[in-house]
Amino acid sequence: MLIKEFRIILPFTPEEYHVGQLWSVAQASKNETGGGDGVEVVINEERDFDKHGKGQFTHKIFHLSHKVPRFVRALAPKGSLEVHEEAINAFPYIKTDITNPDYMKDGFKITIESIHIADDRGLQENVHNLPPDLLKLREVVTIDIVNDPYDPRDYKPEWDPRLVRSERADRGPLKPDWKESSQPIMCAYKLVTCEFKWWGLQTRVESMIMKAERRIFTSFHRQVYCWLDEWYGMTMDDIRRIEEETRKALEEARTKGELRGMSEQ
User: What are the TM regions of this chain, as residue ranges (predicted)?
Assistant: First the structure.
């Protein structure tokens, strides 16, 4: 098992980020869906989560069969290319579990617990209240969406915080010293726990998953900032309407649309 805490510094209030993150998830889902692949929204409903209060529960299935080479699809066991995501969004607390119940069963699980704090630059030592044994295993990784290296495959000028200015929010472009000078400021503390119980592959696969998570967190949050003018000023009612429209669009695109991101090598 690997445990990493990603601390993502962001030029938002938590309330702004809540809206922007949900809007951006919907946008990214549309970009990755079509021709049998992509995101299937099974459940998206309000629930009461006891100590976390009321929030939104979502269950999604990621169909990935056309995201891998054809020979892998031919060899892969049934269910191995479907990943389930169950999420509790009781903002500022969010918990996401990612599993492969049809094939890996309890041999694979990624859990992401997120806490979002205003006026914070990622300096809290144990925001998730980990016990001493887990605290010893935890590795801290701070992500700077402006200055950190990024995968060249994820780069577009319109997704570069150094180039993008939001007219509606009157922010940006973000300068190299933005973490010291920007207001508002916040930190998303994302505790990622990864388990891949497959003898001979566990260490390698868990390390690959953590590397992928860092890439996803970096790329996604650069986009959330650069899309600021698209979502700034929206309400949660606007987001719920967009999510329902997106759910219908995703199902139509997944069952009838053209393939996106397909690999045939």
Answer: none
